[in-house]
Write a structure and sequence with these properties.
The chain is an alpha/beta fold and about 200 residues long. It has a single domain, classed as Rossmann fold (3-Layer(aba) Sandwich), CATH 3.40.50.170. It contains 6 helices and 9 strands. It has a 7-stranded mixed sheet, with helices on both faces. α1 (about 15-25) packs parallel to α6 (about 165-185). The structure holds 5-O-phosphono-beta-D-ribofuranosylamine (GRF).
């Protein structure tokens, strides 16, 4: 039942680390077969090396056009032969061709309770809106930005005096629980997409 997963990350990679740790602890029946990154400076690369996970760099800036980058990324993703692709702090919009190639097999983590506050700076948007509760969402990726069927959500309070950093830290703690949980459910074959709804069986 062990599934092959590949993680896409652009930066720090703390969610990637949470996934590595959960697999190592036997909580997720998966093997992480690759880290794919668009950023050769990503801190996540060191985390992959430390865990002996192959790194594939598709450097965005080395392509003259977005389409060429997307084609190269698609081809690298196909080579991975993964059952599941996990966007964990991958900071680019995924093109339609990739979405279509992997619909139902690609998930993303977002630092807000979707459909509220999609796009960049979910925590800042929550503060600016004055909500009392925010959180994180793991969802399947479809062609709408942060818009696909929701798998798992966790909420946190927004406290008096919070700034973007304090709220981000509180949400991140929950992200590190949510993402491995969603991957586990996927790997156990328990996620069924029915329209907008993900049924967990
Ligand atoms: C997380 O807040 C994630 O939800 C968002 O980008 C951040 C990435 O953090 N998409 P990290 O790279 O996993 O530490």
């Amino acid at each position: 039942m062990t599934k092959r997963i590949a993680v896409l990350a652009s930066g720090r990679g703390s969610n990637f680390q949470a996934v590595i740790d959960a697999i190592r602890e036997g909580m997720v029946p998966a093997e992480c077969v690759a880290l794919i990154t668009d950023n050769p400076q990503a801190y996540a690369i060191g985390r992959a090396r430390a865990a002996e996970i192959p790194v594939m760099v598709v450097e965005y800036d080395s392509f003259s056009a977005r389409e060429a980058y997307e084609r190269a990324l698609l081809s690298v993703m196909q080579q991975c032969n993964a059952d599941l692709f996990v966007l964990a702090g991958y900071m680019r919009i995924v093109g339609n061709e990739i979405v279509q190639a992997f619909f139902g097999r690609m998930i993303n983590i977002h630092p807000a309770l979707l459909p509220a506050f999609p796009g960049l700076h979910g925590q800042r948007q929550a503060l600016l809106h004055g909500v009392k509760v925010s959180g994180c969402t793991v969802h399947f990726v479809d062609e709408n930005l942060d818009g696909g069927p929701v798998i798992v959500q966790r909420c946190v309070p927004v406290l008096e005096g919070d700034d973007e950093d304090t709220l981000a830290v509180r949400i991140l703690k929950q992200e590190h629980r949510c993402l491995p949980e969603a991957i586990r459910l996927f790997c156990e074959g328990r996620l069924h997409i029915e329209g907008r709804t993900v049924r967990i069986v």
